[in-house]
Amino acid sequence: MPRKPKHPCSYPGCPELTDKRYCESHEKLMNQNYEKYDRNKSSKRRYGRAWKRIRDKYVSLHPFCEVCYEKGILVETEEVHHKKPLSEGGTHERDNLIALCKSCHSRIHAERGDRFNSNREYTY
């Protein structure tokens, strides 16, 4: 299947072409700005250094999207999703986690009726 053509980086004034929203240099900058200025303070507490270790370990054990894998499709894991959200009493335990690609992750949140606001935080 042919790939989509690259498009300009969304960072103002950047002429680099990319497959993602931002080129590699601006993606890192935008992620840092998001973590520093835009991310909800309560999410920072729930998704700190411990979550990163848990997530990285889970991704190493589940390198492919578990939903796509069941269909016989190999898609690299991009998100680790809580089956029962932390806001509803879920935990970081392995039986509450599932490895997903961005497409499956978005579909799950859409099916739940979660809204995605401009600050990248899901509201339940």
Explain what this protein looks like in three dimensions.
The protein is of the alpha+beta class and 124 residues long. The protein is globular, with a radius of gyration of 16 Å. It has five helices and six strands; from the N terminus they run ββααααββαββ. Helices cover 40% and strands 13% of the residues. The chain starts with 6 loop residues before the first strand and ends with a strand. Strands 1-2 form a two-stranded antiparallel sheet. The protein has a two-stranded antiparallel ribbon with strand order 3-4. β1 (7-8) and β2 (17-18) form a beta hairpin. It has a domain at 50-124.
Write a compact overview of the structure shown.
By secondary structure, this protein is α+β, with helices and mostly antiparallel strands. It is built from five helices and six strands, in the order E-E-H-H-H-H-E-E-H-E-E.
List keywords for this structure.
124 residues; alpha+beta; two-stranded antiparallel sheet; 6 strands; 40% helix; globular
Number of strands: 6
> Strand-and-helix sequence, N→C?
EEHHHHEEHEE
Q: How many distinct helices?
A: 5
| Major sheet size, sense and barrel closure | 2 strands, antiparallel
Structural class: alpha+beta
Uncertain residue segments: 117-124
Task: Work out the radius of gyration.
Answer: 16 Å
